[in-house]
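Field reference: sequence -> structure
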Amino acid sequence: MAKITRVEAVMVDLVPQVRRVDAIQSFVSQETPIIRIYDADGAIGTGYSYTIGTGGPSVMALIAHTLGPALIGRDAAMVEQIWRDLLFLTHATTVGAITAIAMAAIDTALWDLRCRKAGLPLHVMAGGAQDRVRLYTTEGGWLHLDKAALVEDAIRQKAAGFGGAKLKVGRPVHEDVARITAVRDAVGPDFEIFTDANQAFAVDEAIRRARHYEPLDIGWLEEPLPADDVDGHQRLSRSTSLPIAVGESLYSHLHFRDYLQRGACSVVQVDVGRIGGITPWLKVAHLAECFNVAVCPHFLMEIHVALCAAVPNARWVEYIPQLDRLTTQGMMIEDGYAIPSTEPGLGIAWDWAAIDALAAPGSHVTLS
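Structure field:
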């Protein structure tokens, strides 16, 4: 058992390669805190998390002043113990996005370190349930795109082997229906179409729209309501045959318990970068399995491919490439499936020269 001797952190601000607009916001940047944890044996674990353009400096400050110093001298192998201690150390700021995002960067680094020392890839170390997971794409379904662009992208992705595509909804309902119908007519019945409202609707509007979407045979209606409206999601779930998907905007594993116990969702989209790391991600995935609910995580495909392969109830990985400029090798894809890396650790091939070149000025932190 080796003690943690040093913690390094830096933040990279990544501007998306394509314009991303949904019903409530634009994704203008990805602030990406990256952490390296060193132990007394000389082993290094690397982890990360993200924001979509706000809060990154606050995440880095929490790491630099509170969470990072608490790691020095700890036994790096005691990942669950460290996660719980950090949770209670920050009890005054939990449940909260800034704390969860900061903890995610640390926890993923600890898991990377654990896997590297064991000589195992994450998907094996965390469970070893699958060797590949189906892919769907979101990159061609943004709300600002016209109908022709949606159809063109869906046809292209189906030809490339993807099993489905996500379309953003939130235009007037007749426009949403026309856009989904155009894509369905183009790709046929054997290609999944998912929809995402990004929390844009009130309950009455969500129920109304679900009735319009039902004949189009969509795979799920994602985030139809604000994430803290469990009652509304329960009412909606009882009123429609559409699968209701939630999770990307939940920052505690206990919130998923509430949704699952009340039958307020039928797809769980837990995000490792927002839930607080791999440790709570696995808790949510196994809890969902107990309710016979599928896990289809939000974003961060480069790490979710391994986590999805670790658990038996993961069904889809979301294709949104965002780390290409920070890595020397992308996620492996074969016949429309995401393939987890067989290398020890998270399976992410970081390009440290690129990270240093793109680092936000003044964001480097070193603790020892």
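Note: The chain is about 40% helix and 20% strand.
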